[in-house]
Amino acid sequence: MSEPRPMTGPGAGLDCDAVIVGSGPSGSTVADLLTAHGWNVVVLEKGANHLIDLEAPYGPLGHSANDELKSLHRHLLGPDPLVEPRTFRRSEADGDHLFVGHVNSLPSTIGGGGFHADGKLPRFREDDFRLRSTLGPVDGAEVVDWPLTYEDLEPYYAEAERLVGVAGEETNPFAAWRSSPFPMPPGPDMQGAIMSMAAAERAGLHPYRCPSGVNSVPYDGRPACNNCGFCGGFGCPIEAKGDPVALLRRALRTGRCDIRAESYVVGLMTSPDGRRATGVRYLDAERVEHEIRAAHVVLAAGAFETPRLLLRQELGNSSGMVGRNLMYHFQTLTVGAFPQRLESMKGRCVTGAHDDHIVGDAASAAAARAAGLPWVRGGLVEHGGATQPVREAQIYGPGAHHGAAMRDSSLNDRLWVFTMQGEDLAQPSNRIDLDPTVRDAFGFPAGRVTYAPHRHELATSAHVGPILEDVLRDAGAEWTITTTSPPTHGEGDVSPLGVAPASYHIMGTTRMGADPATSVVDPHGRLWDIENVLVVDSSVFPTSAGYNPTLTIMAMAARTARLLIADPLPPTSPHP
Amino acid sequence: MTGPVWLSATEHRNLAALLDLLIPADGISPGAGEAGGADYVDQLLGAFTFDPPHIWAGGPYSGRHGGEAGFDRWIRLAALEELAWRIRVEGSQGRPEREFNGAVVGWQERYRDALVVLGDDFADVAPDERTRRFDATDPTFRELAFVHACESLYGDPVYGGNRDGAGWTAIGFAGDVQPRGWTDAEVEGR
Fold first, then answer.
1. What's the CA gap between A441 and A141, in Å, rounded?
2. What is the pLDDT of residues A102-121, one digit of tens each?
3. What pTM does this model have?
4. Considering only alpha carbons, which residue of chain B is nearest residue A347?
């Protein structure tokens, strides 16, 4: 990798050293590290604040609760699709859009996506950073190596785990090497996970307790999780989830972090030659426009909103790649129905996982050959179950059967679900752009997804689904079924999760690379076109891997922040 | 609440009958109307008669499993949040700031129109006739009414339905369990 380009510090006439657009896992990581280094930052978040008192001593607001209605049905964490709609289409053949509303809408609130997540925080593996070199190209896909290695990122993975607090154990034989143990031991196993992990082992798979950003013991002044069961989709009422509370509170306590909610960034300000950013313009809650002048602009709005912001001004897009190579995780959902109740409302939503379908074997190689592909690569399989009762009630439909169906819970607490976060190969035709006819409440074009899976995703899912069904049947399931999100669009195929990908794992829309002709940001996260604009969210990912992205987002953000302040972490080596 | 804040007494009575039609009592589980479903819908349609609006209950605890009860400290809406909920509940009403993507029919109008179709005597007619009249309402309303029936019966009682937690009790759901939570042994079934 080349030496870092010179960085500029604060100067006269500036409001802050860095203005950070977005307060989720990446933005809060950067805020934490920059303020710890003595920089002054302003964090602009378009959503409202439901997380933390922004005045000392920065306690919780108390908005998070075990309340299904406000969290899952009434858009507490936003964005509300009525005022911030997004659109989806599979291809241009669908016209301007096929669907308008909620499309991969990660929370728009102080704390962003970290607020609602249930904190599955695995690392990527060594091969994930050198996919092209290791496995080779795939027709129709942009399979590339990252411009950095796992070894480069390992110190920052370790730092991110310490900053947020990760509970886990080193029993996964496929996991990448680590320079330090997990900060906390794992929490208790859900009943369904005990059952499914045992069956997975019998099938020759290698299940393990999934690394989790949920405290198993008191950590960093926050309590251990008490297993309330309202985890995925909910803010934590007792702050047992570290992301993003720990990061933002630490930044605020320095006195150098100014967090502004309801601050909608309308554009970047640039120098006359367009080569440097001078700050950002934003609208406050009353829609009054303000300017923040900063030495650096850090884009942390997520892989949907960051390209949308850049595309509005055609900034950073000399390559024509802004918004392209959109990736999700292609989700294969295999459901098993059990005769007994699984008590899935007790625990952290997902406590077990296995990775075998990422590594592959002779059978997956044969599946690849049969599909005319050089290889297939799946993803982490989450062992989980159960939804909340209002959602369950809607499944059964109206009528006299309803009460008995709810009491029996055959389509909820007797179901156990394997969700594979399958690797999604980058394709330039999959993209975020601006919808020509739908607008948000501020009058700006809505972001639009154009996405169709590559046949790699379809072949991988078709191979793994039956394996997962066999595991669930061995565990005692009376029947099993497999579906995907998005739907495979085969004849008669529909997904209960809708026509658009339901995943909140959105990546790749301002790809990082070593060549400005084919990438949007350089290997340090800076826009090739505007060197003092850094992108720190998952839009920089060159590949999606098959792992939940949040810890990698935070590690990459930490690396970019430390390169910015010229304080990179030293290389690491495996711990004993 | 002492009485309906948005529905008339007749509308409230007929709506309760409708919700019981959608999710009826069966001797073990209560019907959605019987458990306060009309109060739930009334509180939602009349959310902006309260300050703060009754859209999002507070927290972090209900007090049912320890801690100080905070669900009745309703959360104040930010400007964009209020705009969204006013559009959803009240409709766009021809106001430009609500019609950036065209006109929106609000839930108040959908309910009021449907209750007219159901008729003032809806609660008193035979079940078959109730079904016939319900089937004559707008499909969008029929879908909405069922969603609200589910929300009322299985959402937190602070929103007006699920009276005394009767919906949860029938299905063995503990509801909000903070700050007690579950012990590790309870999670693992030991």
1. 36
2. 998 899 999 999 988 888 99
3. 0.96
4. B187
